[in-house]
């Protein structure tokens, strides 16, 4: 995708930076949309905890933050046992990767796999065409 600023082309590094910023903005908007819908209609009516976990991971990885499984489960808004079970299923399917924290082996760090990251990049890029 060629990008311009004030009609002038911008370089590939600047273009990639702008793309990353757009992706992060779209992700935050999707997270806010989820909160607003849940506040208006309740979580049980509009539950999509896997998507909530993916958005949380996407945002965190975009910002260079680690996400611990316990925090990821909180973001899903479902009971811990269910969230842990779903996180394990998503890891088994290759959507998430999990590893023990080197500093505290009791904690598990969850990341997206490269394939998941690329798929979410494509989703965010597609949505960016619709957002001002």
Structure in words:
The chain has 132 residues and is of the alpha+beta class. The chain has five helices and five strands; from the N terminus they run ββααβααββα. The chain has helices at 12-41, 49-62, 69-76, 80-92, 114-128; strands spanning 4-5, 8-9, 67-68, 96-100, 108-112. The strands form two sheets. A three-stranded antiparallel beta sheet has the order 3-5-4. The protein is globular and about 45 Å long. It starts with a strand and ends with a helix. 17% of the residues are buried.
Strand order within the widest beta sheet? 3-5-4
What's the number of helices? 5
Whole-number mean pLDDT: 86
Low-pLDDT stretches are none
Structural class category = alpha+beta
Q: Largest sheet, described in full?
A: 3 strands, antiparallel
Order of helices and strands: EEHHEHHEEH
The termini sit apart by: 17 Å
Q: What's the gyration radius in Å? A: 17 Å
Please give the number of β-strands.
5
Q: Beta fraction of the residues? A: 5-15%
- The shape is globular
DSSP helix fraction: 55-70%
